[in-house]
């Protein structure tokens, strides 16, 4: 694996069903478009929903930790957090954040496709 210098924020929610999953993805997509995606170094936000309808992961990729830190330091965090609170209040179902601490990560290892390893 080439060194992945990207920096990630992984946002994790528990929800009460597939309908709430779709609503949460829709409102968080809007938040990304209005509050985040235009910052230097922002690369993408990927939304993953569990097949059982109970979880939503939003994986936000930044070019570097410095780009993420610049976003944190210069963005309207209060406005964005207010938008998130209002979005959550507007859901027809229940969504609960599951993150503890700061949800930021770097990749340290990845196993890609290749031949099967056979130990002698």
Main features:
120 residues, alpha+beta, five-stranded antiparallel beta sheet, 5 strands
Report on the structure:
With 120 residues, this protein is of the alpha+beta class. 35% of the residues lie in helices and 25% in strands. It contains three helices and five strands, in the order E-H-E-E-H-H-E-E. Strands 1, 2, 3, 4 and 5 form a five-stranded antiparallel sheet that branches. Strand 2 and strand 3 (55-62) form a beta hairpin. Helix 1 packs antiparallel against helix 3 (77-89). The longest helix is centred in the N-terminal third of the chain and has 19 residues, at 18-36. The model has no long low-confidence stretch (mean pLDDT 93).
